[in-house]
Amino acid sequence: MGQDKSFLLTDLYQLAMMQAYFKAGETGTAVFEFFVRKLPDTWGFLVAAGLEQALDFLETLHVSEAELDWLERSGHVGPSLTSRLRDFRFTGDVHAMPEGTVFFPHEPILRVTAPLPQAQYVETRLINLLHFQTLIASKAARMVLAAKGRTLIDFGLRRAHGAEAGLLAARAAYLAGFDGSANVQAERAFGVPAFGTMAHSFVHCFADETLAFEQFARARPENLVLLIDTYDTEAGARKVVALAPRLREMGITIGAVRLDSGDLGALSVSVRQILDSGGLRAVRILASGGLDEAEISRLLRNGAPIDGFGVGTSLTTSSDAAALDCAYKLQEYAGLPRRKRSTGKATWPGRKQVWRSIGPDGRIAGDTISVDGEPREGTPLLQQVMRAGERVLPPPSLDEIRATTASGLERLPEPLRRLTPGAHFPVEIAPALVALAQEADRIVNPT
């Protein structure tokens, strides 16, 4: 069993609570919801992602004999729990927003309805899966808006926080609108198109830069991209112009050149002039090296003739907002509403639905969070995706998820599409939900 599938990939307190629930006889139906409390300071929206991996986790959840043996020897839990875990499976229902859905603070993007020990146990891994891909998809979506149709490639595997993070970041970026990834495994696992250029070390291996370009072109003639800033960027561009006729005689076409350092704006202008003067108007210019959505916006706003961007560290680490303030909280137990009332972390109780209204301009006009089942105008965003531990429908393709994201980004109000800092989107709390919170407070009154 892979480490990412291990039943022990959880927090110890989940096992401790499970043991206590069973001992107390608290195995009634519980409802938990996953949501984000607030946005990072300069962000105006989020994109839901990670549902496919979350459902796979729930559907395949079980405990191996080796894990049971280790638990018994560890002393962390007693035999009363390990005996119950032998046939442990997830048998609950799941409602969720489709992957790629644009959403906002306090809106639940996933709801789990299951026997309390099950619903409690799955918290850690669900947060782990949903949080990370939602974070990266949201960061990537900001870059998609900033790039205004230019090519975007994920270069971030080498700076990602581990192998799973690098792989899932490539998936999240692609569903948000990136064109592909340098991560080869992402193509094999998810169908994310793989892109590759060359490294400065390849150029260093040859005594002559032109020879390095030619040898790489002979070996990799398809979708040829040459890295031209190892020594002198403008000189590198002139060498590409001089080499192009010889490569054409071999049937090789140069697709693009890549800039990875220096003043990318100024260099892209001079390189474009050199390429155009040399008859290489069709050769595209790609840029990489420390880019994020702010820098992409600045370059394009200043007229840089860059056709595509490779983004690494700032994408896979979400460098300006490394984590979301998210939570998975109990909202109902044994048919009664429950909510947290802690200062700054109070929750809205009960099973909820998010209703979205679209304005006459085709843009999202507002969201309303209300009690599930209350008739309201608009489109309900949460859908049932799992019943009694099994998926209701086959998973959508990544292309279908990309279309959902693209539609959501297109419908954002213009200030959010422009990534205007401080841009606010209205989310209404329905009176029925306020009333349910008051009822929950009467049911559980610590004073």
From TrEMBL:
Its EC number is 6.3.4.21. Keywords: Glycosyltransferase, Ligase, Phosphoprotein, Pyridine nucleotide biosynthesis, Transferase. Transiently phosphorylated on a His residue during the reaction cycle. Phosphorylation strongly increases the affinity for substrates and increases the rate of nicotinate D-ribonucleotide production. Dephosphorylation regenerates the low-affinity form of the enzyme, leading to product release. InterPro entries: Aldolase_TIM, N/Namide_PRibTrfase, NAPRTase_C, NAPRTase_N, Nic_PRibTrfase-Fam, Nic_PRibTrfase_pncB, Nicotinate_pribotase-like_C. Residues 377-435 form the Nicotinate phosphoribosyltransferase C-terminal domain. Residues 8-130 form the Nicotinate phosphoribosyltransferase N-terminal domain. GO terms for cellular component: cytosol. Pathway: Cofactor biosynthesis; NAD(+) biosynthesis; nicotinate D-ribonucleotide from nicotinate: step 1/1. One of its GO terms (molecular function) is nicotinate phosphoribosyltransferase activity. CDD domains: NAPRTase_A. GO terms for biological process: NAD+ biosynthetic process via the salvage pathway. Pfam families: NAPRTase, NAPRTase_C, NAPRTase_N. Residues 152-332 form the Nicotinate/nicotinamide phosphoribosyltransferase domain. It catalyses: 5-phospho-alpha-D-ribose 1-diphosphate + nicotinate + ATP + H2O = nicotinate beta-D-ribonucleotide + ADP + phosphate + diphosphate. Belongs to the NAPRTase family. Catalyzes the first step in the biosynthesis of NAD from nicotinic acid, the ATP-dependent synthesis of beta-nicotinate D-ribonucleotide from nicotinate and 5-phospho-D-ribose 1-phosphate. This is Nicotinate phosphoribosyltransferase.
